[in-house]
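Q: I have 56 residues here and want to know how they pack in 3D. Can you give me a structure?
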Amino acid sequence: MTSGQTIITEPALSRDHSERMFAAFGADIAVDPQTFTVTVTGPPTAWPVGDCAWGY
């Protein structure tokens, strides 16, 4: 990830496994089902391994 926004546009909505994982690790992520875009807003700050919501 980078500072600012990263926007991904898909041709159609897909499964959201990655979006859920990034959110669980603390990423600021938004999905717009009308425009098929996924937006990740930086700065890149994620939880260290072992501190995620699942406890891994």
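Q: Anything worth noting?
A: The first strand starts at residue 5 and ends at 9. The chain has a mean pLDDT of 79.
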